[in-house]
Amino acid sequence: MKPGIGIIGTGMVGQMCHLANFAANPACRVVAIADLRPDLAAAAAQKFGVSRVYGTHRELLADSEVSAVVVVTKRRATGPIVLDALNSGRHVLSEKPMAYTTVQAETLVEAARRQDLIYSIGYMKRHDAGVARALAELARIRADQSLGRIVAARGWCFGGDTGRAQDNFVMTGEARPDGLELWEDGPDWMPRAMRPGYDNFLNVFSHIINLARYLLGPSPTLAESSIEASGAACITLDFDGIACTLDLVNGSEGAWREGLAIDFEHGAVTLKLPPPFAEQAAEVIVEHDGRSTWLTGEDSWAFRRQASAFVSDIAERRSPLASGEDSVTDIALAETFWKRWASGQA
Fold first, then answer.
1. Per DSSP, what are the bridge partners of residue 247?
2. Which residues contact 75 (CB under 8 A, 6 or more apart)?
């Protein structure tokens, strides 16, 4: 039986990146949406052909045809809604960050474990077709040693133009809703003045940290860090002796620039990531003895592949590429970076 999907949150990202992709997926049914903005929910339901509309996530979770939910709400409300969904026995795909603290994140993972549920986090870059090509190429190179050993890695993110489409979502003039349960937006030790920058860091830059872990190893340690109040940072992670330096810069104008380069003794593998909402795959360039080769293949949208993977994970009872359990590490690392800065060590 096809899983019945409920979408909680019908803003731009909820519609463009999630509702559109699940509605187009023949392996599932979008049976309901929920939003505190009634006009927006009604307009989104009409656009995507969804028959049932609820005013709150709790009303949606009372619908017996909903077997899995996608949570795309304001970041501080994500944790409480995900916890309600998991406790109700629903599989969950939630946008990142999954939480603001390691304790919060572990609470969600434990709820999923207790109910034996699929719990996936929206690090859609792991689903990018170009990233899949890079992962396979790295496995080959490491096995045959054709480029020698890895000597270093570097990543970068300048958060510019997101590349969003203009015609596949609807909006209304309704104000963003209040009345949601909100979790704390930082650990207890974090001063209030520091939290907006921390929020921005988690929202924008956790993607490249998560991707570096996907390609280089799941559990790096912090070697060096320099953080600004805005959330911009320069961080060096140690992956079992391989230093990966990440330059993370805020920006709202100009092109989105994000990528990861892994340097070997005799060449390199470089990933150039598209803007997050652009419907294209990452570029992969392999350098060997002064020659560059572009790896080509399927050019599909990471968000679309993520939606398909979530449905397949449910059907096959398979651990997601970006599981909640794995993604706790991203929150723990972020806390480590910012605690060092707060204590004057960064």
1. 156, 234
2. 95, 97, 100, 185, 199, 202, 203
User: Sign of the CA dihedral 69, 321, 227, 281?
Assistant: negative
pLDDT tens sequence across 85-98:
999 999 999 999 99
As a three-state string, the secondary structure of 50-77 is CCEEECCHHHHHCCCCCCEEEECCCHHH
For residue 346, pLDDT beyond 70: no
Q: Answer yes or no: pTM beyond 0.90.
A: yes
Query: Which residue in 330, 301, 98 sits closest to 211, CA to CA?
Result: 330
119-121: strand order across its sheet: 52-54, 29-34, 4-8, 68-71, 91-94, 119-121
Q: Which residues pair with 244 in a beta bridge?
A: 153, 237
Mean pLDDT of 144-173: 89
pLDDT at 176 exceeding the cut of 90 = no
DSSP state of 127: G
pLDDT at 345: 65
Q: Judge whether 307 and 153 are in contact, CB under 8 Å.
A: no
Which range has the worst mean pLDDT, 161-175, 255-269, 312-326? 161-175
Q: Which regions of the chain does DSSP assign to beta strands (E)?
A: 4-8, 29-34, 52-54, 68-71, 91-94, 119-121, 150-159, 221-227, 233-239, 242-250, 257-264, 267-273, 283-288, 291-295
What is the rounded CA–CA span in Å between residue 204 and residue 200? Answer: 6
CB burial of residue 10 (10 Å; 0-12, 13-18, 19+): buried
Instruction: Provide the 3-class DSSP secondary structure of residue 257.
Output: strand
130: region left, alpha or beta (phi > 0 left; psi from -120 to 50 alpha): alpha
- pLDDT tens profile 139-149: 999 999 999 99
